[in-house]
Design brief:
The protein contains 23 helices and 29 strands. By secondary structure, the protein is α/β, with parallel strands linked by helices. Among the domains are: 280 residues, Rossmann fold, CATH 3.40.50.980; 179 residues, GMP Synthetase, Chain A, domain 3 (2-Layer Sandwich). Helix 6 links the parallel strand 5 and strand 6. The longest helix is centred in the middle third of the chain and has 22 residues. The protein is globular and about 85 Å long. 47% of the residues are buried.
Length: 656
């Protein structure tokens, strides 16, 4: 049966056609699950197809036409994925939006994409759209999934998901050939989705991706990594991010595996354990948070348990990665690692929900080598991939047995990569995007006449053919001493420490490197509570001398590591301050995928940067805060600035 299904799938060139293939070849196999009120509910591929068909016919009854755009806003929910499938079945284009975006961001995307219909998760998203309704006149219909709190709403343009599906079932009975006819009209060259960039350098751009783009990239990944129909995937990343779209929607429609939607962000770890996922994608910040949770638990553990944990983690660092890569390891190390597996590694993987993990991937930005090594030392096959929304998410991945903490692997089949004379990585592949929506100038700037995508990333190939990304090309610079300055590399090293949530470094064209630090209020708060150190909130905790001393130790450890690298010796951090607030996407300091908006931070905190380089030991700051509902507040603080010890290779040798 699987062989027949796979042969049928190979002939399909759109996701609705692939969905119908699964309806024929594996109708009773689970396609998607959702946890609601603590109970997992499951839908088969047959039920998935029926749900999407009913919604598609309901949308058609409401006037949805081929080429129309449908906005999708909410957490990962089966009905929102069905909405994407229903839209594509009609020849329409789904446009997922970040559910935590502020009003201005949503208005821009809805207006720019010319969205007529919107499917949302719940009352929160309905209220947000109602507040901006006059600014989005093209929106004709808002469809909500969760009816809680919406019983008294009476708007002619507002309908429930169930009402639209009910209308669709009637329409389907009256026009029984309509759905299949619409699906058949689709082709691989059609636009499959518009996914908006996170807007690191300005307004988001709508990346137009065809079925051919997404299906080619998905199939290449499935073949290279031997993805199977029985994989279990957790769908928790924003639906507007290309990573979730590729893993939770595109690859699922090709491989036929099951996608699991957690109840909430707070229950994710529990949900991971209950499902026992086998295939996982997460940006580095998620792995950082997992490591932080582990370290907090260890700090609270009994003395003997802490000792055992640190001892066997030392064993894992020494032998775990080699064992995972099937390299020679001494009998004693194998024995100690086996004991560690029984006492530490397997219980820890069970806590993380990684007991059945076959393959974990990370992408979106560079992951810290220490963080990467931590998970691989536990026997978790985590790999780095590299890509971009404009390249359908993936262009390189690390082959088994060649996983390296500082590279992003080799080009996928069908992918060409070149390094320009200026050191920029450029890519040509079947996954390279069609265009930026309604932005021909930006399209020409990003993709040349020969089809090469100009990524804007600086990198090079090592002697084994692996691509190494240094940083964004525009962000890489040099200190006045001639040393290369790669801010993201430094920031990732800082964020390995559980007490540091975010970091922004400065140094290009300067005599030395300085840094802004965001503490992790959970980890640092736990540390403070165990020392009976009272605090009233983030700002109070961030200003404590004891917390400054803690962060100073972390920064100095980073400097020791840099001192051992001849290329980065001169980029040690000389001064830092702890910001009085967490960097926030709502305040324009981060993108929705938590990438630092450097230009925005330099403009907003110029006085703090001047103080870092002006020899001051403190600086007063007043900052405006923007809330999700549009309200604005003000936060005042007087920040301390701390000098940090730097090291020479000779000093390190003496210390050792």
């Amino acid at each position: 049966m699987e062989t027949t299904g796979e042969r049928s799938v190979a002939l399909s060139d759109t996701f609705p056609k692939l969905l119908l293939d699964h309806l024929k070849s594996r109708p009773a196999r689970p396609a998607i699950r959702e946890k609601d009120f603590g109970i997992w509910q499951s839908w088969t591929w047959g039920e998935y197809a029926a749900e999407a068909r009913a919604l598609a016919c309901g949308l058609a009854a409401k006037g949805f036409k081929r080429g129309d755009k449908l906005g999708i806003i909410g957490d990962n929910r089966p009905r929102l994925y069905w909405a994407a499938a229903a839209t594509q079945a009609l020849g329409g284009i789904p446009v997922p939006l970040y559910q935590d975006a502020v009003a201005e961001e949503m208005v821009f995307v809805i207006d720019n994409a010319e969205i007529r219909f919107v499917v949302v998760e719940d009352q929160e998203q309905v209220d947000k759209l109602l507040e901006m309704k006059e600014r989005i006149p093209r929106v004709e219909l808002i469809i909500y999934d969760e009816p809680r709190g919406l019983g008294h709403y009476d708007f002619p343009f507002l309908d429930s998901y169930e009402e639209i599906q009910g209308l669709g079932k009637i329409f389907d009975q009256e026009h029984p050939d309509f759905f299949l006819k619409e699906v058949t009209q689709g082709s691989g060259s059609d636009i499959a989705a518009i996914l908006y960039t996170s807007g690191t350098t300005g307004q988001p751009k709508g990346v137009v991706l065809t079925y051919a783009n997404l299906i080619a990239t998905s199939r290449n990944t499935i073949e290279c990594e031997r993805i199977q129909p029985d994989e279990e995937v957790l769908s928790y990343l924003p639906m507007a991010w290309i990573g979730d779209h590729l893993f939770s929607y595109c690859q699922a429609h090709i491989a036929g595996y099951c996608v699991n939607c957690p109840e909430s962000a707070e229950t994710m770890l529990t949900d991971l354990r209950e499902i026992g996922i086998t295939y996982y994608l997460a940006p580095p910040r998620v792995y950082e948070n997992l490591l932080t949770s582990v370290m907090i638990r260890m700090e609270d553990a009994a003395w003997l348990k802490r000792k055992m944990f640190h001892y066997f983690m030392g064993v894992a660092r020494q032998a775990g990665v080699a064992i995972l890569d099937r390299k020679p390891v001494s009998v004693m190390d194998r024995l100690l690692y086996a004991i560690g597996g029984f006492l530490v590694y397997e219980p820890l993987k069970n806590v993380l929900g990684f007991s059945r993990m076959r393959l974990a991937m990370t992408g979106g930005e560079a992951i810290g080598p220490d963080l990467f090594a931590f998970f691989r030392s536990l026997g978790i096959n985590i790999k780095q991939l590299y890509g971009a929304t404009e390249a359908s998410a993936i262009v390189t991945v690390q082959p088994d047995g060649e996983v390296n903490a500082i590279t992003v692997g080799k080009p996928m089949p069908g992918v060409e990569i070149r390094i320009t004379e200026a050191g920029e990585v450029i890519v040509r592949s079947p996954g390279v995007f069609h265009s930026y929506y309604k932005n021909p100038q930006a399209t020409r700037e990003a993709k040349n006449d020969e089809g090469w995508l100009l990524t804007g990333d600086a990198g090079f190939f090592d002697d084994k053919g692996h691509l190494r990304i240094i940083d964004r090309a525009k962000d890489v610079g040099r200190l006045n001493n001639g040393c290369i300055f790669a801010p993201k590399f430094l920031e990732n090293k800082l964020k390995f420490f559980p007490y540091i949530k975010e970091a922004v470094t400065f140094g290009n064209g300067r005599d030395e490197v300085a840094a802004f630090i965001n503490i992790d209020v959970t980890a640092a708060g736990n540390w403070a509570e165990r020392r009976n150190l009272p605090y009233s909130g983030y700002t109070d905790l961030a200003g404590k001398p004891e917390v400054y001393a803690l962060i100073k130790e972390c920064v100095e450890q980073v400097n020791r590591d840099l001192a051992a690298d001849s290329h980065l010796l001169g980029s040690q951090i000389k001064r830092f301050l702890i910001l009085h607030k967490e960097l926030d996407a709502d305040d324009g300091e981060l993108t929705r995928t938590r990438k630092v908006r450097r230009k925005s931070i330099v403009e907003k905190y110029g006085a703090l940067i001047d103080a870092l380089y002006g020899g001051k030991d403190h600086c007063a700051i007043e900052t405006q805060l923007k809330f999700e509902d549009g309200r604005v507040g003000t936060l005042k603080a007087d920040l301390n600035i701390v000098d940090v010890q730097t090291f020479t290779p000779e000093e390190l040798k003496k210390a050792s």
